[in-house]
Amino acid sequence: MGQGKCDPIRQVLGKSKMILGLLEGIPTMLKRELAVFKMKPELHYGDNDCPVSISDSFSKDAQLNFEIELIEFSKINSRTTIGYL
Question: Average pLDDT, stretch 66-84?
Fold first, then answer.
């Protein structure tokens, strides 16, 4: 599949800016799984509400393929710790 190795990117689902297709696809993956997500424009940068900025010269109408390897994952405790005396 891939063209080479890249440095891993740390993302927090629901907190990090991420295109919709990855936000929906990554939770379906297993640790060390390599997946290719084929996305229509409404699931990537073509979406009007896309939180990730992209160059105006980028074709937002094309289908894009994203190759993702899920290296590691962990759950983050969402509770807030409150300190008191």
Answer: 70
